[in-house]
Amino acid sequence: MTKTIKPKETTFKHAEAEWFNYHNTLKEIARLRESIMNPFDDDPEDPTIVKGANSVRMTGDPTQRMATRLATHKRLEHLSEVTKAIEQVYNALPDNYKELARLRYWNKSNKLTWEGIAMRLNIGRATAIRRRNEMIQATIELLGWR
Q: What is residue 7's DSSP assignment?
C-alpha cells in the first residue's frame, strides 16, 4: 500500500495557482512558441545568431535551429509540463469533479465561495474542499513536486 505524502503548504498553493492560471499559461506557451519559431526579433540569448560589424547571419540549418530552440527552451518546457499535468488530472476526473474545477478555477464571470460551489454541485462544503485537495494532490504527484 502506497502512502500519500502530504505536500508543503507552499507547494499546494503553487499547484493551485497553476490551475487558476491554466488558460493564461496556454496563451504564454503559444506566445513563446511563436517567438521561438519567428526569432528574427534579434534574440540576444540565441547562440545561432552571429553578429558581425555590419551584418547578422544565422548559422546552420534553420529548421534544426528552430527545433533546438523549441526543445531546449526551459520556460517553455516547464510551462508545457505543468499544463500537461493539469490536463491529465482534469481528463481523468469524473464529471462532478470536472464541474468543480470549472467553477473554482476557470469561472471568469463570478468567483464563487466554497459554499456557492458546494450548493451548485449539491454537495457539502467539506466534500467540495476534499475533492479540490485530491485534484491538487494528483497534480503535485504528477509533477514530482514536494
A: P
